[in-house]
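Checklist before submission:
- one chain only
- standard amino acids only
- sequence pasted in full

Submission:
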Amino acid sequence: MSDHTDTTDAGHDVTAPGSSSPVAGDGGPPGDAVPSGAVAMTSFSDPHLQPYAKNPRRAEAIIGFILLVGLAGFAAYGGLYWVGGQTQWEGVFMGVGLFAFGFGMSAWGKYLLPQGPFVEERHTMASSEPEVEAMAAAIGERGKMVFRRRGFLGTILGAGAGVMGIVLAFPLRSLGPQPKKSLAVTDWRTGSYVVDLDGRRIHQADLEAGGSLTVFPEGFAGSSVDQTMLIRLAPTDQDIVTLPGRENWGPKGYLAYSKMCTHAGCPVGLYEEVSQQLLCPCHQSLFDVRTGANPVFGPAPRPLPQLPLMIDSKGFLQARDGYDQPVGPGYWERP
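Returned file contents:
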């Protein structure tokens, strides 16, 4: 600040040195000076606390109406989302709420708050301890008075924030029920007939050597967790043994593995007859079907679970038992 400041009575101009123009203040004639110590700012009659609007009551009413529109938009969005409404209208109501609240808060700050700048008359840069305490108290009191004076708008603002906070919690409902044990079991059971996507039972003569087919347990055709790759390596009367303990799991050249990749759950839907490997097209994991679908390339961390098979007296394929381990990618509860 300059060491030369011309002042007159309260409400008159404050002129900067070397200039004939007054320094603009707020809430009164241009250039209102802030009293030293800022004690006078703790009163509603302080000219520096006067709002920018010429008619504050009318401005408050208009802003209150705009905030109520925003509150109604948030409430309409929440109600429509709760009953399962259309996303287009949900977007409209959300947009109305956010726009109205943003516009209302901006108008509140522009028309109902002191605008400044304010000029404080002082001769030294250092302030005494009482002056520092008085200024801190004045600043705190000014902020409190702004909300006390506009309590109606503050109530609407708080109500809108509360409604929107509740509405933002609604998407948690979309997460659905907890998976519990559904990640560890499938619908394959002992004696489940092997069927295709149309629900037709698979006969031992349906696949030629080198053929593959996506199959499901009867009654659950199309189920993602149950999808299984059925492969016929060769037409033979001998069982194919992939690992010790699985001597009767691959009857007459048939093998079955879960189609859900153990890396990220992608469908392992490509079978390479020459190399006798299953390929996951998402991240190029390769599984050797001769060795229990052991991963030989790519990011898959473990083999595909194998489904034990058997053939009934009429030649139709059945599950000898369900999967002996969870299918799909690993998760934290996997033993």
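Reviewer check: The CA atoms of residues 67 and 101 lie 5 Å apart.
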